[in-house]
Amino acid sequence: MKNVSIGVLGHVDCGKTSLVRILSTTLSTASLDRHPQSRSRGITLDLGFSCIDREDDHGESQTITLVDCPGHASLLRTIICGSRIVDGMMLVIDASKGIQTQTAECIVIGEVVNINHVLVVFNKADLVDEASLQATEQKVLKTLAKTKFQVFATVRVAAAPREGNALGIESLKQKLFQFVDSIPSQSSGAEDRITVLAVDHVFPIKGQGTVLTGTVLGGVVRVGMELEFPTTARGFVRKVKTIQCFHRSVSVAGKGARVGLSIDRLDSNIPERQFAASPPGAIEVSNVLIGSIFPVSYYRQPIKSMAKFQLHVGHDVVDARLTLLSEGADDEESPKPLIEKEFLREQELEHRDDRRYFAVFELEKRVCVILNSIAVGTKLDTDPKSNACRIAFSSIVMHSMDESWRRMLRIHTQKRREGEIDRVVNSKEAICKNLFSRENNQPVFIGMKVDVQNSAQDSTSMVRARIDGTFGKSGKVRLVATEGQFSESHVGCLVSLEYKKMTGREGSKSFAQ
Questions:
Q1: Beta strand pairing call for 88-94 and 117-123
Q2: What digits encode the pLDDT tens for the residues 193-211?
Q3: What is the Cα Rg of the chain in Å?
Q4: For residue 265, with 0-12 CB atoms within 10 Å meaning exposed, 13-18 middle and 19 or more buried, which class applies?
Q5: What one-character-per-residue DSSP string does 285-350 give?
Q6: Are 463 and 483 in contact (CB under 8 A)?
Q7: Cα 421 from chain centroid?
């Protein structure tokens, strides 16, 4: 059976939950505003899960899971969590209002978590005239054309019209089925080395014990399988007793399946948001992570080293301090392990094609993380009413480390020193002063190249030279020209030395060009 998950995203009160309720054939636990506060406030506070059962064009049974994500600005972390487990997006837009603040954030989230396929639904179409609706559709499509989304189709509906029954639902169902068929099939997970389950709810059921619900992110879950529940304190292993997929008992569930598991001897008071995995050790637990980092173009503030952001990683949102690093783009396919690469320390994350950026995230607490998963950086303290993008960057988590990471990674900092020509010995030799102080260890710089600025009298007198040795005890050094010639006009000219200060593994330091 093919499993496909569709995230239903949009601005608060655009009608997502009403649409999902009409479309669904089976409701799951945690579906459609079960949270008491959701019902009282009329908005979704948690992820909702429901499904549509159908047969595809080849007669194969298929379950389409609809993941109803909250639209309220304060629940951005929940939206990000939901977007990670879907194959495509149903973007719901209030036809009377067009793209709103959280609509834009949903678009950004979809891009950073690599959702490529989108079905656009204009709800409340009964509230606007044809001309206004066409103008809104054109504006939305123009906006989406600037993204990486492949817009499958647009549909007009009215899930809860002021009068009469819902409008356009049958058309939406047909477009949704065609949309699902167009999404490339995922692997079943049978060939995956590890099984990972994203758990979202844990609760007791009388006569059955503790039940958890979640989504299979990779591998397969089987009855009798032992799952590890890694925690930041001490993990534990428990056995799967039974499996259900939307109230149907099954013995195995593959990648992408929405499941309910009855677990042997599991305390129902454990945290709801967590991972379960097999074999044990598949989930990393750490408070220092390193990964590639990609800026979000809509985020207008600088992203600097030592700045703090909220990092959405796994089920956690944790404050993280960044240390930015980079390597040349030519090194992107380097087979070297991460801890053997040579990084340049950066002050600010830029949009550059010739550099590949990384970040070390120092977290305020230990978290459970799946390597090669996507993390998202945000500034949630930004006023959501300001219309400013709060999503700053995305990252692929590549490695977990500990507080000794500075001694484990090979990091260099670009340095520059300046001095001046003190006197010219001959056309090939000169003495340089002020490049070093007497306290500096000049011998480590012997052999490095320097640039000597053109003299005011001769604009063609640029000289490249090599530091040949020390001269006296005041910090002066002897320069030997390798390109060009010295003349008396060079006395007083600027001498510049650019080099890399290397911090190697186990804290060793060295200098190189």
A1: parallel
A2: 889 998 888 999 888 889 9
A3: 30
A4: exposed
A5: EEEEEEEEEEE-TT--S--BTT-EEEEEETTEEEEEEEEEEEEEGGGTT--S-GGGSEEEEESB--
A6: yes
A7: 50
Tell me, rounded to whole angstroms, the distance of Cα 60 from its chain centroid. 34
User: Which tops the pLDDT comparison, 29 or 68?
Assistant: 68
Domains of the chain: 2-182 (3.40.50.300), 195-271 (2.40.30.10), 284-408 (2.40.30.10), 412-512 (2.40.10.190)
Per-residue pLDDT band at 45 (split at 50, 70, 90): very low
pLDDT per position as a tens digit, 93-152: 999 999 998 898 889 988 988 888 999 999 999 999 999 999 999 999 999 999 999 999
Can you spell out the DSSP letters for 214-227? EEEEES-EETT-EE
3-state secondary structure of 144: helix
Beta strands across the sheet bearing 117-123: 26-27, 48-55, 61-68, 2-10, 88-94, 117-123, 150-156
Instruction: Report the C-alpha gap between 106 and 52 in whole angstroms.
Output: 23
CA 51-57-58 angle, to 5 degrees, is 105
Contact present, 4 and 180 (Cβ < 8 Å): yes
Reported as a single tens digit per residue, the pLDDT across 288-315 is: 999 999 999 889 899 999 999 999 998 8
User: How far lies 242's CA from each of 53, 139, 201, 236, 263, in Å?
Assistant: 21, 49, 16, 19, 7
Q: What would the two tokens of residue 428 be?
A: 């090939």
Helix axes 76-83, 101-112, angle to 10 degrees: 40
Classified as helix, coil or strand, 417 is strand
